[in-house]
Design goal:
Layout: H1 2-9, H2 13-23, H3 26-42, H4 45-73, H5 75-95, H6 100-112, H7 117-124, H8 134-162, H9 165-185, H10 187-190, H11 208-234, H12 237-258, H13 267-281, H14 289-301, H15 303-317, H16 320-351, H17 357-374
Helix pairs in contact: 2-9, 3-4, 3-8, 3-9, 4-5, 4-6, 4-16, 5-6, 5-9, 7-16, 8-9, 8-12, 8-15, 11-12, 11-15, 11-16, 11-17, 12-14, 12-15, 13-14, 13-15, 13-17, 15-16, 16-17
Length: 387
């Protein structure tokens, strides 16, 4: 744990990681908040699902585009502008009794203007800590995300129950703007000049590290959606949140315990193997919530360290001017993976059984291991950059 102590003693690091975590907190509330509010207004889960899908598509498109603009127009200008426009669209969804089409379009705007806070932070981290600490930094960054996914949904449901769904959506907008202001007010952020991209839009996809990172993120996150959809289908709604939370808890434990130890060229493959083992264990008792929680905790142990390796690979192998866009493509891969996994899981449940969604997780998990083996030299933390 000594490396974590050195990281937190690095000037500005704690300010940057805590402010970016707060600024991104609405993402942990968004799924439930949008579904609950739009269903309440229009009495239709279909409309709520379409709006959520529009937001996801928008975010997948905006990830690399807005991240690329960080170097062209400056971090503060891009983040504050996108955060403000997105927040205005959130307020519109919350307070306007808009038509279904208008709701879906506003959700699309939320996604298209999703501020690339995390991508900006990941681009800045290498300037804050020594290079030898970067694997632990990116693992810690991935671990901190789990706080969003543990607390966010719980806060959304509690506020909706105690007050109303409109308050939750408006609160998301307030947090997004205030969080972006806090993040940008850090001198490490405001003074950081991200170089203009050295290539045309999309050319970073010619780098094998970027392609491997996006594909591995797609497969890793796609597996999550399989177990999440499957859990909701096989256990009670009251237990589903707790069971899914076990995966986040495992990820936190794995990130803190293993984040500073992933130095072997086979580390990523081994960690993805841990995730796969947890998925495979589910089939011993796929409808038992306690057993499911244990299995997802095991899978979670490999999650944050794996995501940390993916972030480190981009930092090691791309120039600062290109790394923001590369992180954007990595985010897009994860969003596509989650959407694809959720869609395939729903189909599997309808056609086969309520637990068939777990097959999707196994397939995605096996695919991630296969790609990691093929890309073992590309993702090697000791590999010298060709950039």
């Amino acid at each position: 744990m000594s490396s974590y102590g050195a990281i937190f003693r690095s000037p500005g690091f704690l300010r940057v990681i805590s402010s970016q975590l707060f600024a991104r907190f609405p993402f942990g509330m968004m799924t439930l908040a949008f579904v609950m509010h739009i269903q309440f207004v229009h009495h239709s889960y279909a409309i709520a699902g379409l709006a959520l899908g529009a937001d996801t598509i928008g975010a997948a498109i905006s990830g690399p585009v807005l991240s690329r603009l960080l170097g062209k127009f400056g971090t503060t200008r891009v983040l504050l502008t996108s955060a403000s426009i997105g927040a205005a669209a959130m307020v519109g969804i919350g307070v306007l009794n808009a038509s279904p089409l208008a709701m879906i379009l506003m959700a699309l705007v939320v996604g298209l203007t999703s501020p690339p806070i995390q991508n900006a932070a990941r681009t800045i981290y290498p300037s804050l800590v020594q290079k030898k600490h970067l694997p632990a930094v990116y693992s810690l960054d991935a671990t901190s995300q789990e706080i969003i996914w543990v607390i966010g949904p719980v806060l959304a449901t509690v506020l909706a129950a105690q007050f109303n769904t409109m308050l939750v959506v408006v609160l998301m907008a307030v947090i997004q703007v205030s969080g972006a202001i806090w993040f940008c007010s850090n001198r490490e952020v405001s003074r950081m000049v991200i170089p203009r991209p050295s290539r045309k839009m999309g050319r970073v996809l010619g780098n094998r590290v970027v392609v491997a990172t996006a594909l591995l993120g797609l497969l890793l996150i796609g597996g999550f959606s399989g177990v999440e959809v499957g859990t909701v289908a096989v256990v009670s709604k009251a237990m589903a949140g707790l069971v899914i939370g076990a995966l986040s808890l495992g990820s936190i434990v794995g990130g803190l315990a293993l984040g500073n130890r992933v130095k072997s060229r086979w580390s990523l493959t081994i960690l993805l193997g841990v995730v796969f083992v947890g998925y495979a264990m589910i089939w011993i008792a796929p409808t038992d919530p306690i057993w499911l929680s244990i299995c997802l905790f095991v899978s979670g142990i490999g999650v944050a360290p794996s995501l940390g390796i993916l972030g480190t690979a981009i930092a090691y192998n791309l120039k600062p001017g290109d790394s923001a866009e590369a992180n954007g493509w990595a985010t897009t891969g994860q969003l596509v993976g989650y959407s694809a996994g959720a869609a395939l899981s729903g189909i599997a449940i309808d056609l086969i059984s309520s637990s068939a969604s777990f097959y999707v997780s196994l397939i995605f998990g096996a695919g991630a291991i296969f790609v990691a083996i093929l890309a073992v030299d590309v993702m090697n933390p000791n590999r010298k950059s060709s950039e």
